[in-house]
Amino acid sequence: MAIRKIPQRKCVGCGVSKNKKELIRVVKTSECEISVDMTGKKNGRGAYICNNVECLKKARKAGRLERSFECRISDEIYDKLMQEIAKDE
């Protein structure tokens, strides 16, 4: 039986590659809506972030999510990400 390959994604905060399931996905749809995607299956351009506060702070300070999506990210999205991370910790 063949060994299944586990998808890896890079965190926009710290730049470390991790298993896709360990990261939180933020998605930008074709209508330019940005939302947190906990299922990892929404259509659109995705960016991944580690499930810890420090990575989120690094990404926010350096504007890495804005760079990934080429648009401004509202404070509401950052607040929602913070809530998801706090819920898991």
Quickly list its features.
89 residues, alpha+beta
Written overview of the protein:
- The protein is α+β, with helices and mostly antiparallel strands and 89 residues long.
- It has three helices and five strands.
- Strands 4-3-5 form a three-stranded antiparallel β-sheet. Strands 1-2 form a two-stranded antiparallel sheet.
- Strand 3 and strand 4 form a beta hairpin.
- The mean pLDDT is 91.
Question: Quick summary of this structure?
Answer:
The protein is of the alpha+beta class. It is built from three helices and five strands, in the order βββββααα. The protein has a three-stranded antiparallel beta sheet. The protein has a two-stranded antiparallel sheet with strand order 1-2.
Q: Structural class from helices and strands?
A: alpha+beta
Based on CA atoms alone, the radius of gyration comes out at 13 Å
Instruction: Report strand %.
Output: 15-25%
Strand order of the largest sheet: 4-3-5
Described by strand count, sense and barrel closure, the largest sheet is: 3 strands, antiparallel
Q: Give the ordered list of helices and strands.
A: EEEEEHHH
Report the average pLDDT across residues. Answer: 91
Beginning-to-end CA distance, first to last residue: 36 Å
How many H/I helical runs? 3
Oligomer: single chain
List strands and helices in order, with pairings.
Layout: E1 8-10, E2 17-19, E3 24-28, E4 34-37, E5 45-49, H1 53-62, H2 64-69, H3 75-88
Antiparallel strand pairs: 1-2, 3-4, 3-5
